[in-house]
Design goal:
The protein is of the alpha/beta class. The chain is built from seven helices and 16 strands. Helices cover about 25% and strands about 25% of the residues.
């Protein structure tokens, strides 16, 4: 894994770097290391901060705030989580129960101060980078939204050619199935708010944002993906001079998460070594339950986020289909 260049951060505060132009404009926030072992975003942020400080990029409108390490505990330990997953149940609370709750009390108001979020991540399995966006404009109870066009433009310009949507609805449907199965009432994974992470919180506060998965954790090109995405976001929003806005990559693949499948037992196992976005054919064997029950693809689609280490009662993998929204 890439060795972090930042000194080990304090566990007692979040380090922020803010640049404010003298002319008004959008307020952007860029976050890295929400998961401590995902440092591509941190490296990309460091590079852009250096370019701003050296005058190679000039901020001329609005403001940009960088948070290179959102979870100092996880970052110091070079692991995904501190005491729990910061990118689940990201909500401010008056009675914090763990380290991530305390981070949320600082991170949530900070996000709410801004209008646009670029959240930088990476993933464990091999695969090409992709971006996650939110829902279409809607007045629903789950995730009402009014910035789908702006968010789609951001997703299209960060430099990748695959977009994934449908997280909150798929997760909420999974919660309903867990409750129907009679799992422990009040467990955090039975609460739809457990699906709220950085971008979901941003949308709930009137802003918009995307999650960019920059590539595999150890891929030396992943920080370059993050660096390029930050620069293109600055150009797209008209915040900076010295950056040429590049057209979106084409063709653009758009997928929608349809269903989350949970692991029921530690002995549940995958039928093969799946990686995200492997294609699935209707009826294809995906996994076997501990009791021998087969889990097969309901129709043609894709497997997304397969997790061989998933705990019983938690999400095991997602099934995705082509999105009807397009780019």
């Amino acid at each position: 894994m890439t060795t972090p260049s930042l000194n080990p951060p304090s566990l007692n505060h979040l380090r922020q770097h803010r640049f404010a132009a003298l002319r008004p404009g959008p307020k952007l926030i860029v976050t890295g290391a929400v998961h401590g072992n995902e440092v591509a975003g941190t490296r990309g942020i460091e590079r852009v901060i250096g370019e701003l400080e050296r005058g190679e990029i000039d901020l001329v409108r609005g403001s940009v705030t960088f948070v290179p390490v959102c979870n100092p505990m996880a970052y110091r330990e070079k692991r995904r989580m501190g005491e729990r997953n910061l990118n689940r149940r990201l909500l401010p609370t008056a009675t914090p129960q763990d380290y991530e709750d305390r981070l949320g009390r600082v991170l949530c108001p900070l996000l709410a101060e801004h209008e646009v979020l670029l959240d930088l991540h990476s993933f464990r399995s091999p695969g090409r980078p992709f971006v996650m966006r939110g829902p279409a404009d809607n007045d629903g109870a789950l995730e009402p939204f009014r910035h789908a066009a702006a968010e789609a433009a951001l997703a299209a310009h960060v430099g990748v050619d695959r977009v994934v949507e449908g997280w909150m609805q798929a997760y909420a449907d999974g919660v309903a199935r867990r409750k129907a199965r009679g799992l422990t009432p009040g467990a955090v994974h039975e609460d739809p708010s457990y699906g709220v992470g950085t971008t979901e919180w941003m949308r709930s506060q009137g802003g918009y944002g995307v999650t960019l998965e920059c590539g595999q954790h150890d891929d030396p090109a992943a920080p370059d993906v993050a660096h390029h995405a930050i620069r293109q976001t600055l150009a797209l929003l008209g915040l900076a001079e010295g950056i040429a806005l590049q057209p979106p990559q084409r063709p653009f693949e758009c997928l929608r998460l349809v269903e989350v499948i949970d692991r029921f037992d530690a002995a549940d196992r995958f039928a093969k070594g799946w990686t995200s976005f492997d294609p699935l054919h209707e009826g294809e064997l995906i996994a076997l339950r501990a009791d021998g029950t087969e889990v097969r693809a309901p129709r043609d689609g894709f497997i997304v986020f397969p997790d061989v280490g998933a705990l019983p009662g938690h999400e095991w993998f997602y099934w995705a289909a082509k999105s009807e929204r397009g780019a």
